[in-house]
Amino acid sequence: MANMAILKSVFLALGLSAILSAAQNNQNYPYLNGTTIHQPRRGVEELTYPRYVELLDGTILVTASHGTFGQPSSQAAAVAAAYFPVFASSDGGASWDWISNITDQVNGWGMGAQPALMELTEPIGEYAEGTILAAGNSWSENGTHIDVYASMDKGSSWEFVSNVAKGNAPNTTNGAHPIWEPYLMLYDHQLICYYSDQRDPLHGQKLAHQVTTDAKSWGPVVNDVAYPTYSDRPGMTIITQLPDTTWILVHEYPGGYTLGLANYPVFYHIAPTPLDFITDPGRPIIANGFQPSSSPYVVWSSCGGPNGTIVVSDADHSGVFINTMLGDETGWRYKVTEARPAYSRALAVWRNQPKKLATISGAMYGDGETNRSRPLSLWVEDLEGLVRQNPPPEGRTPIQIYYSQLDRDGA
Ligand SMILES: *[C@@H]1O[C@H](CO)[C@@H](O)[C@H](O)[C@H]1NC(C)=O
Ligand SMILES: *[C@@H]1O[C@H](CO)[C@@H](O)[C@H](O)[C@H]1NC(C)=O
Ligand SMILES: *[C@@H]1O[C@H](CO)[C@@H](O)[C@H](O)[C@H]1NC(C)=O
Ligand SMILES: *[C@@H]1O[C@H](CO)[C@@H](O)[C@H](O)[C@H]1NC(C)=O
Ligand SMILES: *[C@@H]1O[C@H](CO)[C@@H](O)[C@H](O)[C@H]1NC(C)=O
Ligand SMILES: *[C@@H]1O[C@H](CO)[C@@H](O)[C@H](O)[C@H]1NC(C)=O
């Protein structure tokens, strides 16, 4: 820090602020209002479920699930259409290049859906710091495989690393045994892969993780969220660290408590380590009469007060759910944003940019039925402004109904 301050005065004296900002990972990332990262071919294809990583050098990479409309003409056509395109920006998201595709190199099935991206900030096994890892669901009529790929050249090319877990063919009916939705994270010198798991006979679907120290051999399945009612289907893990050294996991929970506002209510769990979420029973997010539904994302920013701000998004709302009380149940507020609602959209707080909230949106659920090809788009908005924003008019049902029901049920 001290060195950076000295450098800063030297650079400013020399009038080299442009060089400085590059050295500080693009200190001045722009505010953006729906910048197009990529426009999929209209009426032919869609990009959905965007994921990103901000590299240590400030480059932002974005990927998504690629889908085509209608029945593929052949098995080969289906495999060719199933990949994760990778887009890169070196100017904080203002402009984008399509730099590569992550393709299936081992199953002959394609990368069907549900990408995850991260950069190694320390070596793991033979993979050096700065290696980018991608996970995704390679699937076909014969199975669901969560596979990991690595890029040693900043996302330009990819090679197979390992298989984390295998399930049966995609099928969301309880009793079928697929796996879904990987999420990668480093913790305590281990790589963790979280995912949704339908293979346990005790749970229609549960959330679980496996860890590895070399990115190759993965440890046993450990439960994160597994509700006692068999038919409950928690899904779509996303995790972030909070400042009081706890961790928050958000997930969708069809079967979970709803005010009638959410078919896939979003729940959250807070735990002292991201390996032990099972110890927390979990709670729904209920804001000022709004309830998030489906495919949540969570980030934390240091701005917005002494606790910073937790921000959660869902698929059904344009706005976001914020909490400046470290996740206290009474602390959730819905705030209006410009960003487009989308299936499994991603939120980001860029490094050293705590006052900016980035949202990446692709397709909405069901766009395939109408052949609608929305762009993959990026918003970067004023997070401090969102925190200060007066709450929007209350939704249909006030928060008190939920808590009075909890009291009545003794939950
Ligand atoms: C963002 O774009 C939308 C759609 O084009 C527009 O309605 C809105 O006014 C813009 N917001 C800002 C802050 O420029
Ligand atoms: C990615 O794959 C698509 C479909 O095969 C192809 O059109 C495109 O050129 C590829 N892009 C890159 C950067 O490899
Ligand atoms: C699934 O397995 C069957 C039997 O081995 C095979 O005929 C078929 O081609 C496989 N399908 C795919 C997509 O690999
Ligand atoms: C999906 O799984 C259910 C439960 O096991 C099964 O009854 C159904 O046949 C499966 N669907 C397909 C298309 O295989
Ligand atoms: C910070 O979080 C704690 C724990 O929820 C809460 O008691 C406190 O009121 C919060 N501070 C502010 C300023 O919101
Ligand atoms: C979508 O496109 C497919 C061809 O890809 C076509 O068969 C189908 O009728 C179209 N559906 C709609 C709702 O336009």
TrEMBL record:
Does the record's keyword annotation contain Manganese? Answer: no
Q: Which organism's genome codes for this protein?
A: Saxophila tyrrhenica
Q: Which domain of life is it from?
A: Eukaryota
- Record-given protein name: Glycoside hydrolase family 93 protein
Annotated signal sequence is 1-22
Question: Taxonomically, what lineage is the organism?
Answer: Eukaryota, Fungi, Dikarya, Ascomycota, Pezizomycotina
Please provide the record's keywords in A-Z order.
Signal
CDD domains per UniProt: Sialidase_non-viral (cd15482)
